[in-house]
Amino acid sequence: MTSTDWKEKFLERYSQLTDIDKFTEASLKPMRKSIRVNTIKTSVKEIQERFENLEQVPWCKEGFFINRKAVGNTKEHFLGYIYIQGAASMIPPVVLEPEPGDIVLDMCASPGSKTSQMAAMMKNTGLIIANDNKIDRLKPLTINLQRCGVYNTILTKMEGRWFKHKFDKILLDAPCSGIGTIRKSYKTIGMWNPHTVKKMAGVQRQLMATAFEALKEGGTMIYSTCTLEPDENEAVINFLLEKNPNAKIEKISLDIKRGKPVEEFEGTTYSSEVKKCLRIWPQDNDTEGFFVTKIKKE
Question: What distance in Å separates the CA atoms of residue 24 and residue 229, rounded to the nearest whole number?
Fold first, then answer.
């Protein structure tokens, strides 16, 4: 297939999932910049005094949209007072609700936005195992955690599917095809093809199976991606439910506009439980696209 064929296939595919005109329009708009206040080092009030015209992110009390070009050049960024983070990316830790004293696994942690967010929520207590499987991905993770003053975290380099220990809470922000991030990098659409989606879905199922096995009974885990592919989202949740009768999907109550989860796609019907998943299109809240599921182990 040529790149033109891929583009036509993509548009045909996504026309089945959403309003393609609204999706295209939103995906071609530049991303709104957003920051998260790092409460390990400062307070929301102090950052509000330092920056003008901050707009609250409705689903994260430490998150703000910011109308400023060079946020990365500010002293607040260098000092770790703020973290430049997509507004939708703040959702998984908010839904997971890690607390002081918890033992948490961040299975695919780099570059550290959600790791540092969880550390702040835990008041730098308890323990976070922040894992990634490549040394070049551990470098930005290390730098960002140091900059943010995080010290309740141990970094590990291993395949996520190797974990055997038990954790109170787990964040599986899985590697994915990244279709929700077109606004940040237009090359994402050029790299899309169905074969990559199928390959990523296989990796995600492996990670999901390991993460659920590593979760304590009564524990909570989050599965999230920045893609909008049903094969990488609802299909992976359906896989978990089929293999684990003690896996329960919990409804996510957030002040946020959302799309309808996909219950059937290309001849495959998923469990009705996927209706409790959070599917966010770029046009819903003027953010990147995201998918989040809250899972309880009974």
Answer: 15
**Nearest to 72, CA basis, from 46, 27, 34:** 34
- Three-state secondary structure string covering 157-225: ECCHHHCCCCEEEEEEECCCCCHHHCCCCCHHHHHCCHHHHHHHHHHHHHHHHHHHHHEEEEEEEEEEE
Backbone angles phi, psi at 169, to 5 degrees: -145, 145
What are the strands of the beta sheet with 82-84, ordered from one edge?
Answer: 55-56, 63-65, 34-37, 82-84
What is the CATH architecture assignment of 3-297?
3-Layer(aba) Sandwich (3.40)
Q: Please state whether the peptide bond connecting residue 58 to the residue before it is cis, i.e. omega within 30 degrees of 0.
A: no
What mean pLDDT is predicted for residues 24-45?
96
Q: Active-site residue among 60, 148, 176, 226?
A: 226
| pLDDT of 4 above 70 | no
- End-to-end alpha carbon distance in the chain: 46
The span from the CA of 298 to the CA of 295, in Å, is 10
Looking at residue 5, its pLDDT comes to 58
Phi, psi (degrees; rounded to nearest 5) at 119: -60, -40
Across 15-36, average pLDDT: 94
Average pLDDT (170-177) is 97
Report yes or no: 279 and 291 within 8 Å, Cβ to Cβ: yes
Q: How far apart are alpha carbons 28 and 18 in whole angstroms?
A: 16
Which residue ranges make up each domain of the chain?
3-297
The pTM (predicted TM-score) of the whole model is 0.96
Q: Is 277 a catalytic residue?
A: no
DSSP one-letter string for 46-89: HHHHHSSS-EE-TT-TTEEE---S-GGGSHHHHTTSEEE--TGG
**Which stretches of 97-162 are DSSP H helices?**
113-121, 135-147
